[in-house]
Amino acid sequence: MGAPGESEGARETGVGAAERARAAHEGILRRQSARESAARTYARALPIVPVRARGLTIEGADGRRYLDCLSGAGTLALGHNHPVVLEAVRKVLDSGAPLHVLDLATPVKDAFTTELFRSLPPRFAERARVQFCGPAGTDAVEAAFKLVRAATGRTGMLAFTGAYHGMTAGALEASGGATDVRVARLPYPQDYRCPFGIGGERGAELAARWTESLLDDTKSGVPLPAGMILEPVQGEGGVIPAPDAWTRRMREITEARSIPLIVDEVQTGVGRTGAFWAVEHSGITPDVMVLSKAIGGSLPLAVVVYRDDLDVWEPGAHAGTFRGNQLAMAAGTATLAYVREHGLAERAATVGARMLDRLRSLASEFPCVGDVRGRGLMIGLELVDPEAPPQPTSDAPDLDGPRPEAPRPAAPELAAAVQRECLRRGLIVELGGRRSSVVRLLPPLTISDEQASAVLDRLADAVSAVSATNPGERRPGRDGERGAAGPE
Fold first, then answer.
1. How far is 46 from 56, CA to CA, in rounded Å?
2. What's the confidence (pLDDT) of residue 319?
3. Which of 202, 200, 180, 205 is nearest to 190 (CA)?
4. Which residue in 72, 60, 51, 70 sits closest to 335, CA to CA?
5. Backbone angles phi, psi at 135, to 5 degrees
6. Burial of 314 (0-12, 13-18, 19+ CB in 10 A)
7. CB contact at 8 A, 211 and 253
8. 8 A C-beta contact, residue 137 and residue 166
9. DSSP bridge pairs for 59
10. Are 80 and 70 contacting, i.e. CB atoms less than 8 angstroms apart?
């Protein structure tokens, strides 16, 4: 029955509108499936049709509302349609300014560059130059590779297992999914699945020694490279923060051998990890920084910022038709300034720490959650098979104390099930990691405490639902009775 006093016609109108909305939603999805490339990704796991969005919230064509913890894969530092971003874009549109200017100087570009340099680590900004390139992060990676090769006269590159730097040819070669490898691959330290089976400081030290040996051994088969590229937090690799001490060792190793160090801040930049730039956690000064995603304020923009003595390019040595996106620069200026002026990096550190604490308590209840990790508002939960035996680790003594419990095999099917259950509850999350077994959270930096609680409630319910359908994964809850019901 309808509400008291509601007319039959009004009820029919409401039902009819909902049916039309669902039909429109399903029709758009069918046409997308019939027309678009098989390479589409997010659309497969997230069958929604966004029509309106604000902040953390997306509304679909079918009328459903979602909390968006994908945030354009980390692009939306301020969430969807933030007022300062919309105002910045409207101001340019209403001014009559040209929207396409190649690499000519404009007041909009000058304001963006000024705000960008204001945000950079001071020692880096003192001698920095900026190259505007194609509008995607992978274009900036390609430009960075060309830059260090031109500056050093060398060709080889060093990259790390688990890396992701983009989908163009050179960026793919330096990423973890490469098949035709022309880049030397180095171990990236992590505690949960340490490549040496040790974890902790000792595992990171071994990774650093391996790097030194590879570079100094005249029979290693790896000549002195043009550069090293690393992510301060591996995102697609499974949300794995690099230890700060190890990052400093990489800086020392490369500096001592005159190898330019490229830091990929495409996803970690603009406050995401709890510092404006993730390199600031370790205190290093890189030679090159690759920036995209959030610097465009939700619009396409990518740049390479580098030390001035690497600026050996001839005019036109690297270009791009859309390297002068005025709307993106205006939106980016507004975003960078807002994050800086409102302390959103510090806010990300605080809220992220709270979320990690609660998620670790969730992991103590459900054995299918193997590990919880992250930095700031870049958070991941690795799903594992709780019935499989732990994978073997090294028997070597750990000089830094007891090593973490041996990990169980990754469970991508459980991660996918959690993602589906989250979507049913109105929560959008991403998957990543070595076997797509890591549920990733990338909420906007503007997320409120109440919204953070709602996100965690829905995620906990989703994990509980998946665990309930897999009896072998259940264990008693904290009160000994609720079991897989999850936290209240």
1. 16
2. 87
3. 200
4. 72
5. -80, 5
6. exposed
7. yes
8. yes
9. 52, 65
10. no
Q: 160 - beta bridge partners?
A: 186
By C-alpha distance, which of 354, 332, 336 is closest to 344? Answer: 336
Largest alpha-carbon pair distance within the chain? 87
Task: Please report, as a single letter, which amino acid is at residue 330.
Answer: A
The set of long-range contacts for 184-187, using a CB threshold of 8 Å and a minimum separation of 24, is 184/156, 184/157, 184/158, 184/159, 184/214, 184/222, 184/225, 185/159, 185/160, 185/161, 186/158, 186/159, 186/160, 186/161, 186/210, 186/211, 186/214, 187/160, 187/161, 187/211
Looking at residue 480, what DSSP letter applies? S
CB of 242 within 8 A of CB of 186? no
CB neighbour class for 34 (10 Å; exposed up to 12, middle 13-18, buried from 19): exposed
How many residues would you count in the chain?
A: 488
Q: How far is CA 228 from the centre of its chain?
A: 20
Name the helix (H) or strand (E) containing 159: strand 157-160
Whether the CB-CB separation of 474 and 429 falls below 8 Å is answered with no
For 403, half-sphere exposure in the C-beta direction (CA atoms, 13 angstrom radius) is 23
In DSSP terms, 67 is beta-bridged to 57, 427
Which phi-psi region, left, alpha or beta, contains residue 238 (left: φ > 0; alpha: ψ -120 to 50)? left
Mean pLDDT by 10 residues, the chain (488 residues): 51 75 90 91 91 97 96 97 98 95 95 98 96 93 95 94 85 70 85 92 95 93 94 96 97 98 98 98 98 97 97 90 92 98 98 97 94 98 93 56 74 97 98 95 98 98 91 42 31
Alpha carbons 212 and 215: distance in angstroms, whole number = 5
Query: DSSP of 358-369, one letter per residue?
Result: HHHHHHHH-TTE
What burial class does residue 468 get, using C-beta atoms within 10 Å of its C-beta: 0-12 exposed, 13-18 middle, 19+ buried? middle
- Please, which residues bridge with residue 431 across strands? 439
Containing 378, the helix (H) or strand (E) segment is strand 378-383
Report how far residue 433's alpha carbon sits from residue 234's, in angstroms, rounded to the nearest whole number. 9
Burial of 138 (0-12, 13-18, 19+ CB in 10 A): buried
pLDDT the model gives residue 487: 30
pLDDT of residue 478: 33
Report in angstroms the alpha-carbon separations of 71 from 74, 119, 121, 127, 226: 5, 22, 25, 33, 34
Q: What's the CA gap between 68 and 441, in Å, rounded?
A: 9
Query: Which ranges constitute the DSSP H helices of 67-136?
Result: 71-74, 83-95, 107-119, 122-125
Residue of 359, 356, 383, 296 lying closest to 73 (CA atoms) = 296
